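quick q for whoever's on today - can somebody do inverse folding on this one?? i tried earlier but teh output was garbage lol. tokens:
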């Protein structure tokens, strides 16, 4: 089976194989990525964590897990020029450096194997974790506890000084939501890397497997524009216009679509 088919097999049914699915996402980009080899690496890390983790309550075990991962050198990739490798899980396992979401995916996999109650939190700009029953959140990059004032400060750091924290920012993330966020991250990282063909792989996955969203169609339209595919670009602009609820965005999209009409008239 092709990597996309393997990905679909991992996400079928209720019990999504989060780490394996993310590794098949990586295999779509890198022919040298071997998910089974990466899973074996993950098992080796699991063995180390089992030995190192102290006896603690289930809630405290979640923070201890993240701290022990940090002790094993898992950390945020602080490269000033973000690269796709920080989101490709086989590279994250090899380098022990990654985005908050990538580190969180690994932590959730280990928590599942070690019976530690841990869930993902779809916080904007910086994915978070939370132990079931805890009154605080956890930074996947080292395990720092974040209480509500800390979350508010982090939100302003990510979204601007006028951002206001609300319940929507602290919602649990399902495995499928995490995989879609991973795909969007990769789409952006390949865009920054000036590799629109690679970014298109992730843009297609987002639109094929997620709910239709204007911004996702618009992102793919930009990729098609850079790839010189005007018909595909026009299709996504039309879909974005149908889905958009932002009046200013609708005006911009209408104007862009008008330029296609003018071009066709000029050609004929």
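ok took a stab at it. sequence:
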């Amino acid at each position: 089976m092709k990597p996309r088919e393997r990905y679909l097999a991992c996400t079928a049914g209720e019990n999504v194989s989060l780490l394996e699915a993310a590794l098949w996402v990586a295999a779509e980009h890198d022919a040298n990525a071997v998910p089974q080899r990466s899973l074996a690496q993950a098992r080796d890390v699991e063995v180390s964590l089992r030995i190192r983790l102290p006896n603690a309550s289930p809630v405290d075990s979640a923070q201890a897990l993240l701290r022990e991962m940090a002790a094993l050198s898992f950390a945020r990739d602080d490269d000033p020029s973000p690269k796709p490798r920080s989101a490709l899980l086989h590279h994250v396992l090899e380098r022990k450096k990654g985005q908050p979401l990538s580190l969180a995916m690994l932590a959730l996999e280990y928590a599942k194997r070690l019976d530690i109650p841990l869930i993902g939190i779809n916080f904007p700009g910086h994915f978070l974790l939370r132990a079931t029953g805890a009154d605080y959140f956890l930074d996947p990059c080292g395990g720092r506890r974040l209480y509500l004032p800390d979350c508010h400060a982090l939100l302003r750091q990510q979204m601007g000084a006028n951002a206001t924290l609300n319940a929507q920012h602290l919602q649990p993330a399902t495995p499928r939501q995490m995989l879609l966020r991973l795909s969007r991250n990769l789409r952006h990282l390949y865009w920054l890397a000036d590799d629109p063909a690679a970014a298109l792989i992730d843009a297609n996955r987002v639109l094929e497997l997620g709910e239709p969203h204007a911004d996702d169609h618009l992102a793919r339209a930009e990729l098609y524009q850079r790839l010189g595919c005007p018909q595909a670009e026009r299709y996504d602009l039309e879909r974005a216009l149908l889905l958009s609820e932002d009046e200013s965005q609708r005006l911009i999209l209408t104007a862009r679509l008008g330029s296609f009409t003018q071009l066709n008239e000029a050609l004929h």
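fwiw The mean pLDDT is 94. also Residues 237 and 256 are 8 Å apart (CA to CA). so keep that in mind when u check it
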